[in-house]
Design a protein that fits this description.
Layout (H helix, E strand, L loop, with lengths): L5 E4 L8 H23 L3 H13 L7 H14 L4 H16 L11 H10 L3 E5 L4 H9 L10 E5 L9 H11 L6 E5 L2 H9 L3 E5 L14 E2 L8
Parallel strand pairs: 1-2, 1-4, 2-3, 4-5, 5-6
Helix pairs in contact: 1-3, 1-4, 2-4, 4-6, 7-8
């Protein structure tokens, strides 16, 4: 039997509700984006990501308002843009720090993460949200500050979540053989890519979703159902 030494987890739909991101975080960033860019647009970090967004869109030069509208459209499309995710993370930072919201986590997640860490497993996050946004998410969660439990974070700078090479790169960064890493996600295409890279996989199918009779990956209704 292969020993699991590290757990790599997705966020949306896995540790936390998709609706929190869609109904709270995305609208918050969309509404505050124009004022944020006007207020912080001359800082080097914001300038860098605005330039990266324009480059991604194939825009050589454009008024700032056009870039704002582009970013808002990408929010509506849930585009997996590293530049957009970085800017969203900066806006969410203000929201978390102001107490405008706390990040949702499913009831059993905190207890299970603490138990796995106590058992000596190393915990990592891989999400399309930027690494700073991930740290804010777990730092300001409804279950308190969970960041001390995690050994590292990965975002789309490691590569797209549906590509095998991304998981190979993460395994190398973690310093574990892929077969000793368990990747948890609710997206089967991500699990397919992780499995192709040699990782063990766990498919989270939370209610009202039902675990199929013959799932493509080991499937679980919640973290408590996961047997290592």
């Amino acid at each position: 039997m292969t020993v699991i030494r590290a757990i790599l987890t997705d966020i949306e739909g896995t540790t936390s509700s998709i609706t929190f991101v869609k109904d709270v975080l995305f609208p918050y960033a969309r509404t505050r984006l124009p004022a944020f860019v006007e207020t912080h647009g001359d800082t080097p970090e914001v300038q860098h990501w605005l330039h990266e967004a324009a480059k991604e869109a194939g825009i050589i030069e454009a008024p700032r308002q056009e870039i704002i509208e582009l970013l808002q459209r990408w929010i509506d499309e849930d585009r997996k843009s590293t530049a957009l995710k970085a800017l969203q993370g900066m806006i969410w930072k203000e929201g978390y720090e102001n107490g405008d919201f706390q990040a949702h986590v499913y009831p059993e997640v905190s207890t299970r993460l603490h138990a796995w860490r106590a058992d000596g497993l190393h915990l990592y996050v891989y999400s399309s949200g930027s690494v700073p946004a991930q740290k804010l998410f777990f730092g300001y969660s409804e279950a308190g500050d969970l960041t001390p439990l995690f050994s590292g974070y990965f975002d789309t700078e490691a590569g797209p979540k549906r590509e095998r090479a991304s998981y190979e790169k993460i395994a190398q960064a973690i310093g574990e053989q892929p077969g000793h890493i368990l990747f948890l996600s609710d997206i089967v295409e991500e699990l397919d890519a992780a499995k192709a890279a040699g990782l063990r996989t766990g498919w989270l199918l939370r209610a009202p979703l039902a675990v199929p009779d013959q799932p493509r990956h080991p499937a679980y209704a919640d973290f408590d159902a996961i047997v290592l």
